[in-house]
Design brief:
Layout: E1 4-5, H1 7-22, H2 30-39, H3 44-51, H4 56-71, E2 79-83, E3 94-98, H5 101-116, E4 120-121, H6 123-133, H7 135-145, E5 176-178, H8 196-206, E6 214-217, H9 224-237, E7 248-252, H10 254-258, H11 266-280, E8 284-289, H12 307-317, E9 321-326, H13 328-333, H14 339-342, E10 346-349, H15 355-373, H16 379-392, H17 400-415, H18 423-427, H19 431-439, H20 442-461, E11 468-474, E12 484-489, H21 499-520, H22 525-543, H23 568-595, H24 597-610, E13 612-614, H25 615-627
Parallel strand pairs: 1-4, 6-9, 6-10, 7-8, 8-9
Antiparallel strand pairs: 2-3, 5-7, 11-12, 11-13
Helix pairs in contact: 1-2, 2-4, 5-6, 6-7, 11-12, 15-17, 16-17, 20-21, 20-24, 21-22, 21-23, 22-23, 24-25
Length: 628
Amino acid sequence: MSYKFDGTALFAIDSARTMSETVGLPLLPKEMLFMVLSGMPSTPIYNYVISKGVKEEEVEEKRHKLFREIITGKKDYTMIPFRISKGDEESPEMFLIDREIIPIFDKALEVAKNQYMTEYVGISHMTAAFAELYPEEFEYIMKTYVPTLGMPKTLNQLGGDIVNVFELPRALSSFLKVINNDYSEDSKECHICGRDEETKALIRVLMKKTKRNAILVGDAGVGKTALVEKFAWMIVTGNCPKQFKDSVIISLDVNAIVAGTHYRGSAEERFRQLIQFLEENPRCILFVDEIHLLLGAGACRDGDLDLANALKPLLARGDTRVIGATTEKEYKNYFSRDSALKRRFEKIKVREPRAHEVYDMIKNQINLLEKAHSTTISKQLVDDVIFKAACFNFETKNPDRTLDLLDKTMVCAELEGRKIVVEQDILENFNVNQKKFENMRVEYKRALAYHEAGHYILYRFSTELIEYVILAVSIIPAEDYLGVNVFEIDPNMTPSHNRNYFIQRIGAILAGRVAEKMYSKTLTAGASADLKKATRLAKDMVTRYGLVEDMSQDRVFLKDEQDDILGEQIITDINKYMDEILKEARKYTERLLAEKREYLDALVEALVEKGMLSNREIDELFEKIDLS
């Protein structure tokens, strides 16, 4: 029978064979093989005995004891020839082994196939086979290492997580990390909750026969890496499909693999080592964060082999599974431009969680933060943190921005020696912002309030803008902006994208400027930024979407194309229709703001007084107006 061994098993067999030759044995006996399986770093039993408090020097000492016993032991082995094929070897070298090793390999292959759904035999499978087939010898060797522990009946009783412990070759450890090793089989709860749909999508891709590579695309901070960590936890704890029970997720640091490779050939050698390791360990799933960095990585000049091209043949064969992560912008600008690389990956969109989903997603991480800072925080205050994090860090994404503010808030409580977080601990992070707000002139506050209230009225009462959900309005200065409407997009709503939709979109963008001009007679710098956004959207209506009846209905106006020659008349017409669109949007905005004048004024006064209002507070404010 022919056997397929992964890289760790090949290394163990080679080591045992070398040691046998060193002491003059004419063959590789099973005792020598198991001594290697039990006594060399990175093997399951070695990690187990170390976890039980046995020191490394003690393991080495007892290993030498077993070594001497093997030399002076029985000599009546039954020798048979054996070959192990390694990678591209056309005629692998033949050597002699103890016939009793063959049942171990057979049982190990059975374990690999039945329990772990793989055809590759690893050191864990061989150890399990030895324990089942030769229990007395297994017990003797185990008691040699740890006399007080007694004899475990099965490999799993050695400590459930040892089968999942996976050590990397030293040459690769500077740029690879085993994510599985961050978890143990005893982990009752994963600190990453939610993302069930994305996790199912990831598993479906990885279970495919071909092109089983996935790329997670989403904004920074939405939890792309956390999704992979959750999958690793599922593997270690057995909460995964059978096909992944023996899988190991390996994280690649792209910057580290090319660090110091200034000379031609040094990067290629690291790439070769990585690819060889992945080929010899098919149970490994490679995770590459910032996967767009593969393009050009390790190439000292144009024409040199980069990491992306080095991996393409491996990806094409489909033996290795790869998970990548990047942002939408970088996916479009870099990754998707390489069609050969792009077609080997299936895209999985990882969206930002909505505000009401954040708590359930991070509740286990909140527990970890509470333990770290020796504090507790109520659900009500967590909701307040979610609200304030959105107002002051709107340009970042959940759940990262909420976790960051929670961490800082608990630090404030810890510094004060309190075991319970209070509202002041949250506000402590925004003292500078609050002081800026308090020192602002009333007329400037009012101008900002009209600006943000104008946006809010348009988004709330425009019938076409059904996907926008406003969470809060603030005029307290943040790091990168003075005021903000905090909104999220409801993924369950599908807007019409007709002409009225875009007119209302432009109207909502212009509403801040219009409201300022109508009611406070002043303009702020934020208004000019809105003008730029509105102008671009108006241009898109004319040149990209074909939403102007008097222009050609059978074409769009492309950018930087050689065959797209725009005459002066066409340019004049584009500008004319853009002006008409902007005027139509302005009139719509003025009309709606006039109709909702009472709501607008009430919201402005509340903002001038408080600086920040949640949508719930605004609802209560508007209910009073309705009742009156």
